[in-house]
Structure formats: structure tokens, C-alpha cells
Specification:
Helix content of chain A: 25-40%
Number of helices of chain B: 3
CATH architecture of the largest domain in chain A: 3-Layer(aba) Sandwich
CATH architecture of chain B: 2-Layer Sandwich
Shape of chain A: elongated
Distance between the termini of chain B: 29 Å
Strand content of chain A: 25-35%
Order of helices and strands of chain B: EEEHEHEH
CATH class of the largest domain in chain A: Alpha Beta
Oligomer: heterodimer
Number of helices of chain A: 11
CATH topology of chain B: Nucleotidyltransferase, domain 5
Low-confidence stretches of chain B: none
Structural class of chain A: alpha/beta
CATH superfamily of chain B: Dinitrogenase iron-molybdenum cofactor biosynthesis domain
Mean pLDDT of chain B: 92
CATH topology of the largest domain in chain A: Rossmann fold
Strand content of chain B: 15-25%
Strand order of the largest sheet of chain A: 3-6-7-2-8-1-9-10-11
Number of domains of chain A: 2
Mean pLDDT of chain A: 94
Largest sheet of chain B: 5 strands, mixed
Number of domains of chain B: 1
Largest interface: A-B, 13 and 16 residues
Order of helices and strands of chain A: EHEHEHEEHEEHEHEHEHEHHH
Shape of chain B: globular
Helix content of chain B: 10-25%
Low-confidence stretches of chain A: none
Number of strands of chain A: 11
Distance between the termini of chain A: 22 Å
Largest sheet of chain A: 9 strands, mixed
Chain lengths: 287, 122
């Protein structure tokens, strides 16, 4: 089963939840989709790491074959091509690598050249397979790196956790596409409700099953909890605002491996989530 | 000489549009004939690369000078490739800016911003 962990902003606890759920599940796959600032590997410290470059094709114009017909310039929906001074200029950071210009050129003057935009790394930590990607600084979109990450083999029988980038933009959409279930991590503030709403709308738009984990819970009113009750969003569980947990996390240790009480906490979160998924599946089959 | 100015309305008295690539219209002014023409900016609704597409249209129209409050890096690259000079507009109408340019009172725009990409360009 594939689960995606997301939130409307950074720092709510996506990586805390993802890493600890994967570490609790035993045989599992953890995929760090936050390619702009991956940090899951800091916790897992994977061994036997294999690396692979991620490349995207970019158009390369052979000026001696180009007759200036402009078919490519007119076709490009992203306006990545311009025809000035009798030659085609390519704006690489705007190109989406669709390949349309290559197909269209009647003179076969457009070919593709691969450009490296990032790297993916795969290793292991105990019985967790740890996969992560890094987008090179200055690159416009992490989507190609995430697509490459998601190609990694994921057994249906075991748990795969996608640790998503923050927010609800393209890179998050790409990360949750293949997920069977989405966990939304929320903070107990009014601001947290706003961020929760962003990802709540996204997972509904994608028709995903979802539930919320309330993080940093205090002994006072929780606006995010109120929001879940109001909207009828299933609450999978609560992680307390806990300085001990914070201290373990801040030195990049995995809480469930460090302390049995956190192992118990995440075991119950995992159990509750699996029940939710089963109930959803049962409800779906009755429809 | 042909001057292009991004404008909010199809009038020589129009204000200069704050955005270059996503301006609704361009005023094209011919300094020899004193004639004004308005060009619908088909790049305005582009998902991305509006500055590039708008610049391409101005290059194709044989423009030699652009007067605008600001201009993105990619648009500037297309314009400079075609030898088009960009001048910084002053507060006031398109007509005022033409007169200021002809009087030699406008300075060339030398700082170009990275794209806004739908995050506050207008």
C-alpha cells in the first residue's frame, strides 16, 4: 500500500510522521519526494547507497538546417522558443521537455540533448528501503526528479511512504498521484487550519482517501481538530507537543527506534490508518 | 523609428501598463509618420513565458525602442538579441512618455527582474 504524507507548509511534521511510520511498518519503502530540501536520509542514514542522475531532454537547434519557418516557436505553449536574428533561441528554464518542437520541425533541425537536473539515491536502513532525490540548485521544477523516484519498485504487500514536499503545487500533485491514501499533518493553530485546508482541497480534488494526524497537540483548544470535526475529516491520531520527542528529532534520530513509547504511538497511528483504509475499501465495494 | 509601450487601454492617453509581458495592448508609435497603432498582446494570457512571446511580437513588428516601467530577464534577452533598446517609463500617459523619450529625457532600463510567474506581476 502506498501512502502520501503532506501538509500545506513546511515544519508541520511530514518527515517525522513519514520516517517513523516507515520505520514502524517493518519491511517498507520510504520515498523522500521533497527534492528541493530532502531530509529523510538524515534520519535513516542509509547504507549501500546507489546514485543515478536525473536528466531532462532539451531542444537543440541545428542552425544550418533551420529555415526559419517558426513552426516550433508557434507550437510551444510555454513560449520557451523565440526566433530573433534569423535563429531560434531556447529558454531552457521555461522548456517543459514535451518534445513537440522535435516532432514538428519539417527540416529535422531540432534534436534533443539531455541535461542533468538532479540525482536520486537509494539505500537501506534496517528493513526500510530509503529512496530520495535532490534537485540541483537553480533548476525550475522538481517534477522530473519525483517521476524518477516513483519508478522505484514498490511491493503492494508492504508499506510505501511518500514524504511529500510542502504546499499543494505541481510537485505535491505529482507525489500523491500514485498514492492509495493521504495523511494530512496539521498544527494546532489558526494558521495550521489554513494550511490544512490547502491540502484537504487538493486530496479531495484528486479523489483520494485521507485522514489527519494532529501534531504538536497541547492541552488546550485545537483549531485544526475543530476544523476536522466540522468537515468530517477522519482523525488518525494525535502526536503531543513533547520536548523529548523534539529533542530526539532534532538530533536526527528516529523516535520509534529510540524509545518504545514512541514505537507504541506510531504503531497505533499505523493501525488506525490501516483500519481507515480497510473501511474505505469496504465502503467503496458496497457502492 | 517605431516605439512600443505596454498600455492598459487602446488610447495614446492610456496609462503605461505595469507589466510588460502581460500588458493587454502595446501602443506602437511611428516617430516619422506620428501614427499610433495598437497591438493586442496575445501573450497576456500565456501560462508562462509571456515576456518572451510579447517580445517576439514586437521584434516581428520591427520595433526599435520599448518604453516600460520594468522588464523581465527573458524578455530583455529577446529584445537585446534583436537590437531593441529598453527605456524606463515615467509616471504619466503613453503620450507623455513618447514626448519625454523624443526630448531625450528617458534613461535606459538596465536592471531586469527574474520572472514573477503569476506571483504578483500585476
Amino acid at each position: 500500500m502506498k501512502i502520501a504524507v503532506l501538509s500545506g507548509k513546511g515544519g508541520t511534521g511530514k518527515t517525522l510522521v513519514s520516517v517513523n511510520l516507515a520505520a514502524t511498518a517493518g519491511q517498507s519503502v520510504y520515498i523522500d519526494c521533497d527534492v528541493e530540501e530532502p531530509d529523510g536520509h538524515l534520519f535513516f542514514k542509509p547504507e549501500q547507497v546507489n546514485e543515478k542522475n536525473v536528466t531532462v531532454p532539451l531542444p537543440f537547434i541545428n542552425s544550418s538546417l533551420c529555415t526559419g519557418c517558426r513552426k516550433c516557436v508557434e507550437f510551444c505553449k510555454f513560449n520557451a522558443l523565440a526566433f530573433v536574428n534569423n535563429r531560434v533561441t531556447v529558454f531552457e528554464e521555461i522548456c517543459h521537455s514535451c518534445g513537440g518542437c522535435v516532432l514538428l520541425c519539417p527540416q529535422k533541425a531540432v534534436s534533443e540533448r539531455e541535461k542533468t537536473i538532479g540525482i536520486i539515491r537509494q539505500g537501506s536502513s534496517g528493513n526500510v528501503t530509503v529512496i530520495g532525490g535532490t534537485l540541483n540548485t537553480g533548476e525550475a521544477s522538481g517534477v522530473p526528479v519525483i517521476k524518477e523516484l516513483l519508478k522505484a519498485p514498490q511491493a503492494e504487500s508492504s508499506l510505501t511512504v511518500f514524504d511529500c514536499p510542502p504546499g499543494s503545487a505541481c510537485i505535491v500533485m505529482e507525489s500523491i498521484k500514485g498514492a492509495d491514501y493521504c495523511i494530512l499533518v496539521a498544527e494546532p493553530t489558526v494558521f495550521g487550519v489554513h494550511n490544512l485546508n490547502m491540502v484537504y482541497e487538493l486530496v479531495r480534488l484528486f479523489g483520494k482517501s485521507y485522514g489527519v494526524i494532529l501534531n504538536k497537540c497541547l492541552r488546550e483548544e485545537n483549531p485544526a481538530e475543530n476544523y476536522c470535526i466540522e468537515k468530517g475529516i477522519p482523525i488518525l491520531g494525535r502526536i503531543p507537543f513533547d520536548t523529548e520527542l523534539g529533542a530526539i528529532n532534532s538530533v536526527a534520530e528516529i523516535a520509534v527506534r529510540a524509545k518504545s513509547k514512541y514505537h507504541a504511538l506510531f504503531t497505533s497511528l499505523l493501525k488506525k490508518m490501516l483500519e481507515e483504509v480497510r473501511d474505505e475499501a469496504a465502503a467503496d465495494s458496497q457502492r | 523609428m517605431r516605439i512600443a509601450i505596454p498600455v492598459d487601454n487602446k488610447s495614446i492617453e492610456s496609462s503605461v501598463c505595469i507589466s510588460f509581458g502581460r500588458a493587454p495592448f502595446f501602443l506602437l508609435f511611428d516617430t516619422a509618420s506620428k501614427e499610433a497603432e495598437f497591438l493586442d498582446n496575445s501573450a497576456a494570457a500565456s501560462q508562462g513565458g509571456a515576456g518572451i512571446k510579447a517580445s517576439q511580437a514586437l521584434v516581428d513588428k520591427g520595433v526599435q525602442v520599448v518604453i516600460a516601467p520594468r522588464c523581465g530577464e527573458n524578455a530583455a534577452e529577446v529584445l537585446s538579441c534583436a537590437g531593441i533598446k529598453v527605456y524606463k517609463s515615467v509616471t504619466g500617459t503613453a503620450k507623455k512618455n513618447i514626448n519625454e523619450f523624443l526630448g531625450g529625457n528617458l534613461t535606459q532600463l538596465i536592471e531586469f527582474h527574474p520572472g514573477f510567474h503569476n506571483h504578483g506581476g500585476r
